[in-house]
Amino acid sequence: MSLVARGNEVFVHGNQDSDVRAAVAVLEELHAQLKRGVMIGGDEVDAAVRMVRGADREPRDGRGPALDLRTERRTILPRSPNQARYLRALLEYDLVFALGPAGTGKTYLAVAAALVMLRQRRIDRIILSRPAVEAGERLGFLPGDLKEKVDPYLRPLYDALHDMLPEGKLASRIESGQIEIAPLAFMRGRTLANAFVILDEAQNTTPAQMKMFLTRLGENGRMVVTGDPTQLDLPPGATSGLADAVARLRGLSAVEVVSFDRSDVVRHPLVSRIIEAYDRREAPASPAEATTGGADENT
Predict the structure, then answer these.
(1) 50 and 187 belong to one structural domain
(2) Residues 247-286: pLDDT tens digits?
């Protein structure tokens, strides 16, 4: 495969017609992004390649809602077919569950969609929440007042907001109440109307906590629930509220469930290989392996 640029034309040569068509499709996608004002870098090239490789490549011909999320600091595009499906679900469904490993954009894309809807005045406020459960530590053991205790748990949500809002805008919107960041326990007793509500790390909720959260949904509200079912920090034997809710609600007309896997990881390339290694190590032995004592780890 070779690419030759002459002026504003690029010639693609290759032995396989499918490879040539894929390369042309990637170049056409990148050209379309340039025409829309998107700055092209390594991330955008990687995203275009992922989208073309995906069997269910998302349409860019005007069918369905546009998938370019223009926040105040950057334009965000899907970087895999599953991310495209997720963005479409965020724009169309009242309740979306996003399941999958770290680095697949579950929380980041939800925050971007919420900011776009707030800017378009389709909602009045954004509420971001997480359960305050981490690796055996409890809030009472941490120093400081309540805000100082819960802020470490909510830091990933702050990071996403800082990446999309200009300096100073986040503080002013928090002060005005347009953006609220709070632990899950603060949701009890509220009705969240005209709000885009995101619950992150939802695998660490109990079924009772998840029911409490989901029943806060008010008029013209949207909810996104994200989590990795394999990363539980609940006590041994406890049931995850995320798994319980998905089993109960999957199939309802206003609910969408989007599942990601390691092919959707958009962090450092090594992250995908790390996830693969852990999945392989934790996979249950087959009956044949159990009989023979398992496969040699060096093979």
Answers:
(1) no
(2) 999 989 999 999 998 888 876 667 667 877 887 776 655 4
- Which sign, positive or negative, has the C-alpha torsion 155, 157, 158, 159? positive
Q: How far is 272 from 137, CA to CA, in rounded Å?
A: 28
pLDDT averaged over every residue in the chain: 79
> What pLDDT is attached to residue 298?
41
Classify residue 292: in a domain, yes or no: no
What tens digit of pLDDT does each residue of 145-192 get? 555 666 777 788 888 999 999 878 888 999 999 999 888 988 988 989
Task: Name the strand (E) or helix (H) holding 96.
Answer: strand 95-99
Please give the residue range of the domain that contains residue 85. Answer: 66-282
In a domain, 293, yes or no: no
Sequence-ordered strand ranges (E) for 151-194: 179-183
241-249 and 207-214 are packed helices; what angle lies between their axes, rounded to 10 degrees? Answer: 60
Place of tokens 């929440």: 129
Closest CA to 117 of 194, 217, 180: 194
CB 66 within 8 A of CB 88: no
**The pair of three-digit structure tokens given for residue 206, joined into one six-digit string:** 């109990």
**Domain stop point among 14, 49, 65:** 65
- d(C-alpha 62, C-alpha 118), whole Å: 23
Number of domains in the chain: 2
CA distance 134 to 131: 9
Q: Are strands 9-13 and 2-6 parallel, antiparallel or unpaired?
A: antiparallel
- pTM, entire model: 0.72
- How wide is the angle at C-alpha 246 spanned by C-alphas 244 and 248, nearest 5°? 70
**Please, where are the H alpha helices in 69-145?**
81-92, 106-119
Last residue of a domain, one of 13, 46, 65: 65
Residue 47 in contact with residue 105, Cβ under 8 Å? no
